[in-house]
Design goal:
single chain, 0% strand, 7 helices, 206 residues, mainly alpha
Length: 206
């Protein structure tokens, strides 16, 4: 929302996130995503690799006491908002919503979960509880890496949807239904599957 409002108030803000090629395409009434369908298999692989990289990055930056993690989340939010503002100005807002809604229901939460996992490490560094910071960090890293690993299936599914379905000519309601179904399936999993007990223990040397 901050990115969208900032770009709506100051159009030059878009230039940080919207390339000249994207702007040229939007001026002609086309999203930059329209070519994806012609290279869907390769695009799916690239999208999955990129999103997994982003998720691992926001997790790993937890080691910076969470500063890098929070900054990356804010930056991605500003980027998404600015792009939506640019599309709104070009009359392509609904087209972008239609593109994002199918895969975004898994992709965005997966990145947020990765950030949350990174903040587990930040918490261990800032507020060590039972043990020293180094020990708490190792324990938090062990827990958080399991959380991050759990996002990979989400990102693989989201990448397939983004490459094969999101840019397709399917009606918008179909994409929205798919996005809602994926979100509901994930929410059901979160609520139905009990969390494993916390069995963290300090290393024997302590």
């Amino acid at each position: 929302m901050v990115g969208l409002l900032a770009a709506a108030a100051q159009p030059q803000f878009e230039s940080f996130f919207v390339s000249p090629a994207m702007r040229e395409g939007m001026a002609k009434g086309h999203l930059w995503t329209e070519h994806i369908t012609s290279i869907a298999p390769q695009a799916s692989s690239r999208i999955a690799t990129n999103n997994i990289t982003v998720t691992l990055l926001v997790w790993a930056l937890g080691i910076t006491f969470g500063i890098g993690t929070v900054w990356q989340v804010i930056l991605n939010g500003l980027m998404l908002g600015a792009i939506f503002a640019a599309c709104m100005r070009a009359g392509l807002f609904s087209a972008l919503v239609e593109f994002v809604i199918g895969h975004g229901s898994l992709e965005l939460p997966a990145i947020w979960i990765g950030a949350g996992a990174g903040l587990l490490m930040a918490e261990a560094l800032i507020f060590p509880a039972r043990y020293s910071r180094s020990v708490e960090l190792r324990l938090a890293a062990r827990r958080s890496v399991q959380v991050v690993a759990g996002t990979i299936p989400m990102l693989l599914i989201a990448a397939s949807v983004e490459a094969f379905i999101s840019p397709s000519q399917l009606p918008g309601w179909v994409k929205a239904t798919l996005g809602g179904t994926l979100a509901l399936a994930y929410l059901t999993y979160v609520l139905a599957v009990p969390a494993p007990p916390n069995t963290d223990a300090a290393p024997a040397s302590i």
